[in-house]
Design brief:
TIM Barrel; about 450 residues; alpha/beta; 9 helices; about 25% helix; binds ligand FHN; Immunoglobulin-like
Length: about 450
């Protein structure tokens, strides 16, 4: 019996020591208030940019594939984005109705857009010689846009990181992960102390050298620098591709489904990241999403209780393509009319469909109508809930009826005021935010 007891004690000690290294103390985790503020923003700009814009190929992934490694790693010597103007980028985000901006300060190719002391492979050693990250941080502050930073975990350029090519094979025995993590911490300390980012967007956590323990260490380290900095769910050891999950086994404050709209979730915060074109970095003649796709993606994301981080890839001269600026301005025009049905709302209670999505705030239920399939739009039943008023957000009464089971039918006008997303307001006799999700 004594032997069994000792074994159990040893096992629990082992488990506790192991578990502590792979998780973070709840005391340091980002507060609910800060995360609620983040989710109220609903819409941000993602920017993938670096010397690779000179080739119009994908950032990081084209190194040693479409672009020979040697050539790729020397592009910075030609990189001189003389038309870069941080305030122009930030005003483009603001005019789009975006509330935060996330820049790839360092992507998988290891090039740093700020004057880091811990790598010579940075913007100050290009012909441009200006602190891109610092300029954007300053412009965001001036225009009341929350400044955020993308920081890659893997770094195919750093000799201390074991993998040097996108194929993820043949780890380099000369690499030194201890030195690599030290450099990462030093650079993150530079970023947090010099630029005070609202959120850190980690990425590239799926390769074998990166362990959950490193992620837990970095998360805790960052929280000592800024207890309120928000950290996404790509800092722990992870899987490639979409990252829709959160949970005790996955480090981070919110989930990050990629290139797809996340599932309706009222419990765990999430943010879809998506390209306005097809490539993350700038690509000549890339396919641009239609305004309908853009607006309905935002509405369905909000309807799912998530945020949308929408990506542009600026050109090598420092400008964002005019057609991308125009598309974003069209989204901003829509938000100028319908923003109250997006910002500061909760998603649900109905799962978004191809025809409608719903958001809610106080006693108002916003019905985003994407197309008029027929004269009547039927919503699932809201038991014990009465609609006091129904009208188009931009004006105009909406006739409606409810059956005994609470099922709602809205009579749509012949012409919807907006062909991409017309919003109908239902004023309820109860707090719409308290309604359970109707799956
Ligand atoms: O490999 C990156 C990719 O280049 C891009 O940065 C996206 C953005 O979320 N994340 C990774 C792919 O999942």
């Amino acid at each position: 019996m004594k032997y069994l007891f000792n074994l159990l004690v040893l096992l629990s000690l082992f488990y506790r020591s192991h578990a502590q290294t792979a998780t973070v103390s709840p005391a340091v985790k980002t507060s609910e208030a800060v995360l609620n503020d983040f989710m109220d923003q609903r819409f941000g700009m993602f920017i993938h940019w670096g010397p690779v814009a000179l080739r119009g190929t994908e950032i990081g992934w084209s190194r040693g594939t479409n672009v020979p490694m040697q050539e790729y790693d020397n592009l910075y010597k030609e990189f001189n984005p003389v038309l870069f103007d941080a305030e122009t980028w930030v005003k483009t985000a603001k005019d789009a109705g975006m509330k935060y901006l996330t820049i790839t300060a360092k992507h998988h190719d290891g090039f740093c857009l700020w004057p880091t002391k811990f790598s010579d492979y940075n913007i100050m050693n290009s012909p441009y010689k200006k602190d891109i990250v610092g300029e954007l941080a300053k412009a965001c502050k001036k225009y009341d846009i929350k400044f955020c930073v993308y920081f890659t975990v893997l770094d195919w350029h750093d000799p201390n990181y074991p993998i040097h090519l996108p194929d993820g094979k043949n780890p380099d025995p000369k690499a030194d992960m201890t030195k690599f993590v030290t450099t990462m911490k030093n650079q993150l300390q530079e970023i947090v102390t010099q630029y005070q980012p609202y959120m850190l967007w980690f990425d590239g956590n799926w390769e074998s050298p990166w362990k959950n323990e490193y992620g837990a260490d970095i998360y805790t380290f960052l929280k000592k620098l800024d207890p309120d900095v928000i950290i996404n769910n790509r800092i722990g050891g992870g899987q490639p591709g979409s990252h829709p999950k959160l949970g005790p086994e996955i480090l981070g404050d919110y989930a990050t489904p990629e290139q797809k709209i996340g599932e309706l979730n009222m419990n765990n915060p999430w943010e879809t990241c998506m390209t306005i074109c097809q490539q993350w970095a700038w690509k000549p003649n890339d396919k641009l999403k239609t305004l309908k796709e853009c607006i309905q993606t935002l509405a369905k994301t909000s309807g799912g209780n998530g945020n949308l981080l929408f990506n542009v890839g600026p050109m090598a001269d420092g400008r964002i393509e005019q057609r991308q600026i125009n598309r974003l301005k069209e989204m901003g025009d829509w938000l100028n009319n319908y923003g109250e049905s997006v910002y500061g709302t909760k998603g649900g209670p109905f799962k978004p469909t191809e025809v409608f999505a719903t958001t809610r705030k106080g006693n108002k239920l916003y019905v985003h109508v994407f197309e008029r399939k027929s004269a009547d739009l039927t919503l699932p039943a809201l038991k014990g809930v009465k609609i006091n008023k129904a009208y188009l957000l931009k004006g105009g009464k909406i006739n409606h009826r409810q059956d005994a089971a609470g099922s709602i039918t809205l009579q749509l006008p012949e012409q919807l005021p907006n062909t991409d997303d017309s919003v109908i307001v239902l004023e309820l006799n109860t707090n719409a935010e308290k309604l359970p999700v109707i799956s």
